[in-house]
Specification:
InterPro entries: Lysozyme-like_dom_sf (IPR023346), MltB-like (IPR043426), Peptidoglycan-bd-like (IPR002477), PGBD-like_sf (IPR036365), PGBDSf (IPR036366), SLT_2 (IPR031304)
CATH topology of the largest domain: Lysozyme
Structural class: mainly alpha
CATH class of the largest domain: Mainly Alpha
Strand content: under 5%
Helix content: 55-70%
Number of helices: 17
Distance between the termini: 94 Å
Number of strands: 2
Pfam family, one: PG_binding_1
GO molecular function, one term: peptidoglycan lytic transglycosylase activity
Shape: elongated
GO biological process, one term: peptidoglycan catabolic process
Length: 340
């Protein structure tokens, strides 16, 4: 009896391993994954899951990507009233967090939240297929994407092993991107940030998501504090790195300006707006500085609205602060740093 049981177990293991080793996805992932970091036993277990399946809809989705649409069509999808309203609400509800992220990385906060808006509509639309099965399907059913997908699947398994996550538990897009920021696995491993310091790089926690987006931009060419929004400029290139599409970049920058404009109207009157700006202003880009100058002028100052934080603007801000018992609060550069 014992001998029979042994034979059954032996052949189960034997044929089970043969089944895995014949799997194209398994073979390609094994060539790319860091086996010093991820044990082979773990990889074998992952590829033995009964939840693995190939989705016919995934190749169909790749046949009609958003990026292939004309700019007018693309614009209608992403720069629409409902998304502008959602972005304005998101900014209002998460203002403190957004400000902290923006100050740490010195990036335009409205670009960061616009990317989050286009990628997942602020956490409302970010899933449909398990990340594993999406990449697995691409390896088997889309030969031109197999090499890329196997690299991403290897990165995804490394992430799941390191953070103790069930590889079948995370859902993402048909392309294999996941989380509110829609990072592909290799980018998530490289750029994700544990901003809330809880020991986890969460793709579904806004502190980590927003910081990760900002970190990605900085690491991909965004010059800290830049206000160059021109085509081919550093900001354009960093957003293009996020998604290799001119339509995507134009949508992000377009939504950025719509939300920025809408957020400037959150204040019921000019006086309340000045109170807010004087207390919270941190000169990051020329547009926000020009906005400050415009608000100061509406309160009786006479400044050139040139977007430059010169001595006259600095003096006006400090004067406004003094009027509101904020004279000790320093805003902007020191006198030594200010140019006429």
């Amino acid at each position: 009896m014992f001998r029979i049981i042994f034979i059954i177990i032996f052949f189960s293991i034997l044929f089970g391993n043969d089944t895995i080793s014949d799997d194209l996805a398994y073979v390609m992932v094994m060539e790319k994954i860091n086996k010093k970091t991820v044990p082979v036993d773990y990889i074998n277990k992952v590829f033995s899951s009964k939840k693995i399946e190939r989705h016919k809809k995934i190749p169909e989705r790749f046949a009609r990507p958003y990026e292939k649409k004309s700019w007018p069509e693309y614009k209608k999808l992403f720069i629409k009233e409902s998304r502008i309203v959602a972005g304005t609400k998101f900014y209002s509800e998460n203002k403190d967090l957004i400000t902290r992220v923006s100050k740490k990385y010195n990036v335009d906060p409205f670009i960061v939240i616009s990317i989050a808006g286009i990628e997942s509509n602020y956490g409302k639309h970010y899933k449909g297929f398990t990340v594993f099965n999406s990449l697995y399907t691409q390896i088997h059913d889309m030969p031109k994407r197999a090499k890329w997908a196997s690299k991403e699947l290897a990165s995804y398994i490394e992430y799941c092993y390191e953070d103790k996550i069930d590889p079948q538990s995370i859902e993402g897009s048909y392309a294999g991107a996941f989380g509110f920021g829609q990072f592909i696995p290799s980018s998530f491993n490289r750029y994700s940030v544990d901003f809330d310091k809880n020991g986890i790089r969460s793709p579904h926690a806004w502190p980590d998501v927003l910081a990760s987006i900002a970190n990605y931009l900085i690491k991909n060419g965004y010059i800290a504090g830049s206000s160059d929004y021109s085509k081919g400029g550093n900001i354009w290139k960093s957003v293009w790195a996020y998604n290799h599409s001119d339509n995507y970049v134009m949508a992000v920058l377009g939504l950025t300006e719509k939300i920025r404009e809408r957020c400037s109207g959150l204040f019921s009157d000019v006086e309340n707006r000045l109170d807010y700006i004087v207390e919270n202003f941190d000169p990051v880009d020329s547009k926000s500085i020009a906005d400050l100058q415009k608000t100061l002028n509406a309160n009786g100052y006479d400044l050139e609205e040139d977007g430059k934080f010169g001595k006259n603007t600095l003096d006006a801000v400090r004067d406004a602060q003094a009027d509101r018992d904020k004279a000790n609060q320093m805003v902007g550069p020191t006198n030594k740093e200010v140019s006429e």
